[in-house]
Structures are given as C-alpha cells and as structure tokens.
Specification:
5-stranded antiparallel β-sheet, about 45% helix
Length: about 200
C-alpha cells in the first residue's frame, strides 16, 4: 500500500503549512520587541481564517478574541488579508453572506456591493496587507500581512492588534513596517520568490 498522488499532495501541503507556523512562532518574540503589541497567527481552516497562536503583549491583553476563533472576512484585518489572496472559490460564498449581513444591518463602514468589495481587496493587495480601525472591535485596531509558501500560496496571516489609542495605524508606521518586513522575510525563507503576488485566480 502506498499514498496516491492526491494524498501525497495533501500531506506535503500540510507539512509546508506546519513549517510556516513553526518558523513564524519562533520569530514572534523578537517581533514583539519591535511592535510592542499583541501578535497572532492565523491559517485557513474549515470555516475560514482561524486564529491558532497568540503572542500577548505585556502592556495590553485582549479578552475579546480566543484561539480557534474564525475571523470575519469583511470586518477583520485577518479576514481581509485572506479574502485578498485565497482562491475565490473558497472566499466568495462567505463574502456574499457577510455582505448581505452588512446590508441588513445598515453597515456603512463595510462593503456591501461587489464593486466596493473589489476596491477594498485591491487596496489590501496594493499595501501588501490589511488594516482595520474600530471595525471589528470598537476601540481596537489591527494589521494583518500575508506569508506565502514556495508555491506562492498563502500559508498564514501574521497579525498585530491593540487598543487604537496607543496603536500606530499608519502604513509603514511603527507597527506595520516591522510586521510587513517579518512576513516578507518569512516568505522568502519558505522559498517564495515574489514579495507581492497578484490576486489568485478564481
């Protein structure tokens, strides 16, 4: 008995993701010294982007989120990051459901049309990561940047979050710049050769 091609491919994909998570976890303490805000890792799970590891900041703790939480695609930095780079076949059904919920709730801070959604995702790709300010958790801000494997697939999301009052929300600021640099370096160490890949094919 031997593994078939599909099973072997699945095993290799899982191994690559495990390597990415292990390598990312090893680098979080040094990154914490730079950003000084809570750090976390997320991967695509059965129901969407899922938080799998915390590196809590000594200054602040966020009791609102827990390991295993699945993040919404529209209102969280993590979700927007995954929505921008995961295959559309996986994200479109979830995005359509969330846009309908946003329309029903009268949310003006979230995209409720396809054109508005595409504009948002284009902005995420342009910046090489996603940002939210008081969108998911009032009084909190977050960045999430993508880490890619050697095949160019999104391996995980690297995120930082904290209270808006003390969180530098500027692109290329005190939080985003080191976070983005860490994600680029990790992607390169995983064998990825391009720093800002285009949107995935549907």
């Amino acid at each position: 008995y031997d593994l078939g091609p599909a099973a072997l491919h699945l095993g290799l994909a899982r191994l690559q993701r495990m390597d990415a998570v292990r390598m990312a976890r090893e680098r979080l303490p040094a990154l914490m010294d730079q950003v000084r805000h809570t750090l976390a890792l997320a991967v695509w799970g059965n129901h969407g982007p899922t938080l799998i590891h915390w590196e809590p900041s000594p200054q602040t703790t966020l009791a609102h989120l827990r390991l295993g939480d699945v993040m919404p695609l529209l209102s969280s930095a993590t979700g927007r990051c995954f929505a921008a780079w995961m295959p559309a076949a996986l994200t479109v059904p979830l995005l359509q459901a969330e846009m309908q919920q946003a329309r029903d709730a009268g949310r003006r801070d979230l995209p409720t049309t396809t054109s508005a959604l595409q504009a948002l995702l284009a902005e995420v790709r342009q910046h090489g990561g996603a940002r939210v300010i008081d969108t998911l958790l009032p009084g909190n801000a977050a960045f999430c940047v993508p880490v890619f494997d050697a095949s160019g697939h999104l391996a995980l999301g690297l995120l930082s979050l904290g209270p808006t009052a003390g969180f530098d929300t500027a692109w290329n600021g005190a939080v985003h710049a080191p976070l983005h640099a860490a994600a680029l370096q990790l992607s390169q160490d995983l064998g990825h050769g391009c720093c800002t890949p285009q949107a995935p094919a549907p």
